[in-house]
């Protein structure tokens, strides 16, 4: 049973549990071997081995141990550590990951979600050019045990964009993201936010013939929360909510978070129009 906690306590918990060091990691948990390219959650612990030989092991109260193979790409180490490993530690400690990039405005968080390639990071980067600070990129964590309601935790990942997205968003590239991703880290034009804030809205991105901002109501709000992102698999493995628990969780989100569909043509003009519309609606956000 996870006790209720304040946002400050949740921040301290995440910082403590995601602290990491290099060392030797086991090849299995509870007698179950974990081959390369697989992960396992057992007894509140997490173990992952990458195809390239990186090992990551988390135990409550002990943080994360990372085993780096000889000759490994250090950039790959960070991608796993701040991706699936971070998500697993968060899930085991009562946080829900949502596949989303988000900005902050007026003390609240507006998150953009959708499948890989939907333009979440690009839109968040463009909104930074219009003065809206980045809250997170790619993965948004929501504390399910906060005394303050549905509180989003500030992002741990840096903004990552492909070259065409950098140009579209007018963002400044920093160093490459690993050897094979084709992406570059980008500096958020309006900076980023480092404190927990209430999750006020989820904006679902989808292609369409026109740029529209449509408030979602009724059952569609619930259905929209279906997600096949890998972090949802990790959440189910870690929290084991069962069908009833998942239903209750989605009902809670649907009942407390405003939801919007942002449709736009997949083009430079469509991006510019959706950026302007999103900025306008966020600044007056009532969904």
Task: Describe the model.
By secondary structure, the chain is an alpha+beta fold. It folds into 2 domains: 7-92, no CATH class; 95-283. 32% of the residues lie in helices and 31% in strands. The chain is built from 8 helices and 18 strands. The protein has helices at residues 7-17, 74-92, 120-129, 163-169, 219-223, 230-239, 242-256, 268-283; strands spanning 20-22, 28-29, 32-33, 38-42, 45-49, 55-59, 63-67, 95-105, 108-113, 134-136, 139-143, 151-153, 159-161, 172-176, 184-187, 197-207, 212-215, 258-264. The protein has a 5-stranded mixed β-sheet with strand order 1-7-6-5-4, with helices on one face. Strands 8-9-16-12-11 form a 5-stranded mixed β-barrel, surrounded by 4 helices. Strand 14 and strand 15 form a beta hairpin. Helix 2 crosses helix 6 and helix 3 packs parallel to helix 4 (163-169). The protein starts with 6 loop residues before the first helix and ends with a helix.
Overall body shape: globular
Largest sheet: 5 strands, mixed
- Order the strands across the largest sheet as they lie in space: 1-7-6-5-4
Q: What fraction strand?
A: 25-35%
Helix content: 25-40%
């Amino acid at each position: 049973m996870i006790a209720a906690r304040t946002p400050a306590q949740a921040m301290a918990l995440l910082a403590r549990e995601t602290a990491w060091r290099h060392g030797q990691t086991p090849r299995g948990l509870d007698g179950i071997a974990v081959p390369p390219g697989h992960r396992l959650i057992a007894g509140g612990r997490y173990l992952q081995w990458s195809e390239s030989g990186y090992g990551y092991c988390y135990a409550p109260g002990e943080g994360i141990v990372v085993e780096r193979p000889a000759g490994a790409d250090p950039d790959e180490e960070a991608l796993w550590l701040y991706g699936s490993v971070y998500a697993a530690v968060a899930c085991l400690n009562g946080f829900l990951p949502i596949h989303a990039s988000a900005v902050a405005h007026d003390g609240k968080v507006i998150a953009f979600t959708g499948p890989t390639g939907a333009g979440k990071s690009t839109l968040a980067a463009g909104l930074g050019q219009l003065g809206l600070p980045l809250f997170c990129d790619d993965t948004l964590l929501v504390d399910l045990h906060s005394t303050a309601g549905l509180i989003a935790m500030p992002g741990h990942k840096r903004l990552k964009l492909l070259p065409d997205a950098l140009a579209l968003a007018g963002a400044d590239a920093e160093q490459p993201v690993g050897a094979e991703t084709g992406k570059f880290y980008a500096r958020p034009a309006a900076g980023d936010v480092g404190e927990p804030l209430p999750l006020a809205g989820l904006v679902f991105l989808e292609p369409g013939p026109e740029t529209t901002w449509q408030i979602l109501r009724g059952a569609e709000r619930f259905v929209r929360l279906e997600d096949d992102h890998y972090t949802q698999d990790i959440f189910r493995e870690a929290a084991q909510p069962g069908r009833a628990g998942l239903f209750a969780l989605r009902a809670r989100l649907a009942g407390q978070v405003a939801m919007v569909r942002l449709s736009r043509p997949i083009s430079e003009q469509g991006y510019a129009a959706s950026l302007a519309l999103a900025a306008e609606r966020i600044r007056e956000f009532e969904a």
